Amino acid sequence: MTHSHSSPDVVVIGGGPAGSTTSTMLASQGLNVLLLEREKFPRDHVGESMLPASVPVLQELGVLDQVEEAGFLHKYGATMVWGTDQQPWSWYFEETNTRYPHSYQVWRPRFDQILLENSRAHGVDVREGHRVIDVVIDSQSGRATGVRYIDDAGVERESTASFVVDASGQGGLLSSKLRLRDWDPFFRNLAVYGYFTGSKRLPGRDSTNIFIEAHPRGWLWNIPLHTGWASIGAVVDSESGQRGVGEQGLRKFLENQFSGAPHMSAMLEDAEMVSGPFILKDWSYVCRRLAGDGYVLAGDAACFVDPLFSSGVHLALMSGVLAAAYVATALKDPGLAHAAAGAYQELYFKEYSHFRELARLFYSSNLASEGYFWEARRLLNGEDMFSPRHSFIQAVAGQPPRGYERAVLEKGEPPEDFVTSVREVESQRVARRVRWEEAMADARAGDARLLAAAPRLADGVGVQRKAVLGEGEFVWGTVLTTVSQPEGTPASGLVARLVSMIDGNASVGELMANVRAQGHVDQAAMLDRSVLATLQILYVDGTIESIRGL
Asked: Distances from the Cα of 110 to the Cαs of 72, 228, 277, in angstroms?
């Protein structure tokens, strides 16, 4: 073995979106980063359709202009044949995201290369054609101390580092070594895909949308690309799919999937496959632990969820930002490392769980499709889920809008308990909002009931001191915990003070006076307005369960 003389602060395994994002963010903070990528870029990769949630990360990385200049098609939404309506229907990002009304349909070889070149431009030591073969773990402390790899000349080398970031994709080098991966029993799926020319586009404003069509054996995707090609694939049951591929071969198997999908068949009348077909097996999984002593997992190395909602690149970019914050924190303040590791995992799992729950709801709502694939993935009245109320909050409420949350309710037939929960939660919110507004109107007219009323918190509500995401690192902060969000959400100082003071006896007027006493005299009116606005938000969303006397 020839030992490398390099001893960077951080070694990053993998140059995909997660690895390049982590590297760029760390290098921007002045850390010495070595990125080892086994392939030579550009390299092939599936996962072309993106979400608007990725756009702010691209801006932060400084590559949005390059992405725009690459000519990738703008994606304004999705068109589906799904649920009770067997005719195509569409949803658009602009319905719930006016700031970022579009994302991109990217050609991954070029998109990933832009991100990797950006890392190099930020000072990252990027070495392509370098295959990491092992993560070195200290036998006594259990800490990751570096990696062993084969360089582009075929020489085995070793590099020590203060931290190792595993962004090795679905291969999951470190998760395999530590046996961290759990496969998702609900999404035992397989995909066969290829790239086609001559595929027809959807009409009008939907021409650059991703098209998804459910059929008895699973579902199909069609993603138009700026190259003139289209990414087209079939998602089927893993066991029956592997059997079919073995009997028919990849190409014939993929072609046979189109027969049960009339809309896709019409789009492919004059199409020809020019690359592929390829296969992906059993892809949905999650690792039990995402961060430890001297290491962190990011992107597909940490978890991967069914691709129905094009979440792969978004999760990779987001995890890259979070992983960089964790590494920077652990190196800067070892005393905060353990708390930061927990915060990283909670934030990543929260985003992952959102997509997983939403995908499960979409699968279970597709009652119009019959066949083994759908029967095996059907949820009966919320069975095998969290409580319906919790599932609603996980999938729809309290989450940044993606643009398709309501489609499952409008176009499908979701579990009855879930629909009941939606109606119950939303009707409660409307009633609470009306009750509060009426009380405010009475108060302005001189009625003192609002000031005399005493709020009471719902069960499970509290404030905790935890690590929260700051500017490029985790810092100590305060979070508000609830039954539906036990991991907590960052809370302002005002929210934390109010929640700590609400005991079911203190009146609204007393709460206002207590907060006013802690502020400046000349800010009294502003503080009173802030307290009332905060109490309204907490009351409407159910954090305050009731207000005695209101």
From this structure: 10, 15, 20
CA distances for 227 relative to 70, 109, 224, angstroms? 11, 12, 9
Same domain, 401 and 501: no
CATH of the domain at 213: 3.30.9.100
* Rg over CA atoms, the chain: 26
- Run of H or E residues at 77: strand 77-82
Place of tokens 């059997």: 243
Sole residue written with tokens 């960052």: 490
Instruction: Name the residue range of residue 521's domain.
Output: 448-548
Alpha helix ranges (H) inside 214-369? 238-248, 250-257, 262-267, 312-332, 337-365
For residue 74, the cross-strand partners are 104
Partners of 278 in the beta sheet?
A: 193
Please tell me the distance from the alpha carbon of residue 466 to that of residue 487, in angstroms, as a whole number: 10
Residue 235 near residue 191, CB atoms below 8 Å: yes
**By the 8 A CB rule, do 390 and 409 touch?**
no
DSSP class of residue 54 equals G
Map residue 60 onto helix, strand or coil: helix
Examine residue 90 and state whether it is found in any structural domain, yes or no.
no
Q: DSSP label at 404? A: -
Residue the block writes with tokens 């579902």: 219
How much is the pLDDT for 353?
Answer: 83
Mean pLDDT by 10 residues, the chain (550 residues): 70 97 97 96 90 92 96 93 82 80 94 98 97 93 93 93 95 91 87 95 94 91 96 91 92 92 94 92 87 95 87 93 96 94 92 82 69 66 46 47 55 67 76 89 85 90 91 92 79 89 91 82 76 89 85
Q: What is the Cβ-side half-sphere exposure of residue 388, based on CA atoms within 13 angstroms?
A: 17
**Spatial contact of 67 and 114, defined as CB atoms under 8 Å apart:** yes
Please say whether the beta carbons of 496 and 490 come within 8 A. no
Establish whether the linkage from the previous residue to 455 is cis, with ω within 30° of 0: no
User: Structural domain tally of the chain?
Assistant: 4
What letter does residue 200 receive in the DSSP assignment? P
Of the CA atoms within 13 Å of residue 470, those in its CB half-sphere come to 11
Nearest-angstrom CA–CA distance, 273 and 21: 33
- Interatomic CA distance for residues 497 and 511, integer angstroms: 9
What is the number of alpha carbons within 13 Å of residue 77 lying toward its C-beta? Answer: 23
Q: Which H helix or E strand runs over 402? A: none
Give me 181's structure tokens. Answer: 């991966």
Closest CA relative to residue 538, chosen from 457, 434, 451, 464: 457
Rounded to 10 deg, the angle between the 388-395 and 337-365 helix axes is 100
Q: Which two tokens stand for residue 155?
A: 């020489």
Residue identified by tokens 């995201």 is 97
Sheet bearing 285-287, strands edge to edge: 181-183, 285-287, 303-304
State whether 162 and 296 are in the same domain: yes
The answer to whether 48 and 225 are in contact (CB under 8 A) is yes
Contact (Cβ atoms closer than 8 angstroms) between residue 17 and residue 113:
no
Residues 300 and 166 grouped into a single domain: yes
- Which one, of 39, 27, 38, 35, lies nearest residue 11 by Cα? 35
